[in-house]
Design brief:
CATH architecture: Beta Barrel
Largest sheet: 6 strands, antiparallel
Strand content: 25-35%
Number of strands: 9
Structural class: alpha+beta
Distance between the termini: 8 Å
CATH class: Mainly Beta
C-alpha cells in the first residue's frame, strides 16, 4: 500500500499536498482499494468557500457512494476535470492523475491537525 511520507492525511482517508496556500486533495490508496472501481466523481462546490469537514462532493464506486469531506477550510478553486471522463484515475493513480480538488486555504494552521504518514498508517493498521 502506498502512503507517501510528504503528504498529510485525514481520518476520512483523504490526502493533502500543501503548496504555498493551495492544498491539492484526493483519496488515499487505502480508500480507493476499499471502495473498489470508481465510476464517478462529483464535485458541485467549485468556487465555493467551505469549512473543514464539510462535504465537498461524492465518489461513486460500483457498489457504494461515499461523501468527500474538506480537510481544510477555504475556497475550492479547481476540480480535476480529467475525472469526468476517466474516474478510474482515482484507482490507478490516487496521488497523481487521480487528485480531486484544489483549495485556496483560509487557515493554514489547520494543517497541524492533519495526520502524518505514520499517523495515517496507525489509523488504518498498516
Amino acid at each position: 500500500m502506498n502512503i507517501p511520507s510528504d503528504l498529510k492525511y485525514t481520518k476520512d482517508h483523504e490526502w493533502v499536498r500543501i503548496e504555498g496556500d493551495v492544498a491539492t486533495v484526493g483519496i488515499t490508496d487505502f480508500a480507493q482499494g476499499e471502495l473498489g472501481d470508481i465510476v464517478y466523481v462529483e464535485v458541485e462546490t467549485l468556487d465555493e468557500t467551505l469549512d473543514a469537514e464539510e462535504v465537498f462532493g461524492t465518489v461513486e464506486a460500483v457498489k457504494t457512494v461515499s461523501d468527500l469531506f474538506l480537510p481544510l477550510s477555504g475556497e475550492i478553486i479547481e476540480f480535476n476535470s480529467l475525472l469526468e471522463d476517466k474516474p478510474e484515475n482515482v484507482n490507478s493513480d490516487p496521488y497523481g492523475d487521480g487528485w480531486m480538488i484544489k483549495i485556496k486555504c483560509s487557515d493554514l494552521s489547520q494543517v497541524d491537525q492533519l495526520l502524518s504518514a505514520d499517523g495515517y498508517k496507525q489509523l488504518i493498521g498498516a
